[in-house]
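Researcher: Go.
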Amino acid sequence: MSSAEVRTPTAGTAPHLPAVLLFDVYETLVDLSSLGTRFTEVGAVAQQARTWLTHLLLDGMALTAARAQAHFGQLAEATLRSHLEAGQNLSCTLDEAVTHIMGAFEELDLHADVTSGLPALAALGPRLVTLGNADAAVSERLFARAGLAELFEQHLSTDDAGMWKPSPAAYAYAAGRCRSRPAAMMLVAVHPWDINGAHLAGFRTAWINRAGATYPGYFHPPTVEARSLNDLAELLQS
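Model: Structure:
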């Protein structure tokens, strides 16, 4: 499918409803923007949150490319410690700073469209499952705190798959846990690299493009493109 054929909420066509909607967690459902505040609270720079997350993702993917397992919590703490050690005038000890910032993952908010968009998608009938590179228990607690826990059938982590996304093993693990064919599943994500990986693993895909960005031409395009989860629910309605 070429980029010109990517279906959007205004295209007037609706793809066949998948049996399972498989959601990426961080940035797709969970808003990471408040992490910058945690950095400033320990005397670091807010922008460093984005630099750290990029470093974390790159190192995790490098380990995955080398077919070595990357544990999110361990890697996140190690890369964070490395960032905070480099030329920072922290207002607390390094250990305290790391603990304070890592604690943010238990208190993050959902994107504004998630609270209404997830119930709208669940009402269409597909099973809702998450697949993140981080601890599934943290995802469970975040959605329980938001009052949305009952919408999900299960929360999955690539820690248990042995490989991070976008390794084919991660998506195969999710399909196995859901007892579903990949073709009957749709990955919902904001990351084009995740969309591309799921496509190569045989999944249909939905790119949530809240920022109105241009999809990179070097990745396989999504099956559908939506501005929000609510737009995606509209698209998937029969």
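Model: DSSP finds ten helices and six strands in the chain.
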